[in-house]
Amino acid sequence: MDYILIILIIVLSSACSLQVGSKTKTTKAPLKEVLPTNATQIANVTIAPALEKLAEVHIDQHKTIRISKGDLDDLLDVYMGRIAESAATIKDKENEINKLQTKDQTDDELLKKFENLTQVCNAQNSSFAATIKDKDEKIKELEQKVKIYETRMKRKQHVLTELRKQNTSSALLIDHLKRKVVYFEGKFREKKDDLLADWEAATTTCVPYGNYPGIHLIHLPGFLPFLVACEGQTAAGPGWMSIQRRLDGSVNFYRNWDAYSKGFGKLNGEFFIGLEKLHRLTISQPHELYISIRRFGGETSYAHYDDFLIGSAEEGYELKLLGHYQGNASDALRTHDKMKFSTFDRDNDAFTHMNCAEYHQGAWWYDFCSRSNLNGKYFKGEVDNPQSVYWEPWYSFRSLKSVQMLIRPKSQMELKDLPKAKRTPRDPR
Ligand SMILES: *[C@@H]1O[C@H](CO)[C@@H](O)[C@H](O)[C@H]1NC(C)=O
Ligand SMILES: *[C@@H]1O[C@H](CO)[C@@H](O)[C@H](O)[C@H]1NC(C)=O
Ligand SMILES: *[C@@H]1O[C@H](CO)[C@@H](O)[C@H](O)[C@H]1NC(C)=O
Ligand SMILES: *[C@@H]1O[C@H](CO)[C@@H](O)[C@H](O)[C@H]1NC(C)=O
Ligand SMILES: *[C@@H]1O[C@H](CO)[C@@H](O)[C@H](O)[C@H]1NC(C)=O
Ligand SMILES: CC(=O)N[C@H]1CO[C@H](CO)[C@@H](O)[C@@H]1O
Q: Which residue range or ranges hold the Fibrinogen C-terminal domain (predicted)?
């Protein structure tokens, strides 16, 4: 009996000690209302009522119920198992609590991280915002550039269009010029053919061209062919060749020896045929000379010499022969008969201390200078000037409007309609 009691006391005291260990509410609250908040409390809730009940039973029946040692051992085992279970449960709950606590901690950390991330994000956002602003500005810049390029492009296209237009007109012009070239080539070939035909005709005078006035080729033996102006029908009849012409002052006649020797000017305008040709022509056969002059008042007159001959270069292109004079302009060449030709750079005149070519601004067969100066300076109106183009029988130097000197082989034709040799009336002035 003692034995049993001892065990019971142990059990009870252990239960008490369990109960004493719990510092929670010391007041006697109804058991069923107490909710476990931690492991100790749980232990109290689960174990205490069972032990209480057990103790009551044993106290009530301790006299009647005999409990064997073996039974008590079993009972103890059962309780010990239950205690162990409870401890495990407690451990579980603690773990759960720990977990919850760690979860709290991790939540905190997460929150911090989130905040940090937010900060980082904000920082990045502002940097991105700055970058975006940058990019926006760049885009604007680029857009402006694009606009500029577009404008330039448009301008270039405009220029290109203009160039294309010009190109087209240039192409048209080129076509036109090509056609002209072809046309002139044709003309040139025709002219060449004409010239060749002329060459073959091998004329030495203008006589065959009495009905074909214009420029023709003359071919003298031992001398290169050259072009001359043939006059066709004139007041003096047909077949005359022009050797000198003054019309408008378009050609300068104040030239040197070389120029007068070779000739100059334009065959269809003002010109001088050249002394060398004149020599060759007049030496090849006897020639006659017909000089026609016109005053600014419109009055015309002429001088005709029936035997005209010019010497060679060695002879200073001397006026060797004149023959008989006939006309109504007066004989203003006679005093120059047998005189050499003079230019400002070749003084062959009769004055020793004077250069007549310089004085009269011309080139002629000057003697004690001159009664005629058909290569003088051209004046556009009538002046009285020793430098002018004049033909004066009375030593007046009235400028002439136009002059022409013609030659023709002697006695080829009769001089028709020419008045018989007679003195022209004096100038009434
Ligand atoms: C559990 O309860 C007991 C008594 O009420 C108390 O002493 C102990 O501190 C509690 N333990 C926890 C972890 O709250
Ligand atoms: C935020 O994170 C960065 C890099 O991850 C770290 O260097 C910094 O110390 C953190 N700041 C805070 C307040 O945790
Ligand atoms: C990012 O920055 C822009 C401009 O600074 C601001 O308007 C926007 O609210 C920001 N966004 C966040 C999520 O902070
Ligand atoms: C100019 O015109 C020529 C001939 O018509 C043509 O071949 C060329 O391509 C044109 N050039 C341009 C730039 O239009
Ligand atoms: C000179 O004779 C020509 C031809 O007969 C004639 O045309 C001209 O009018 C005459 N001039 C003078 C001034 O008599
Ligand atoms: C804290 C608590 O509830 N303790 C109780 C434990 O169990 C005994 C016996 O039932 C009670 O007397 C205590 O108050």
A: 197-411
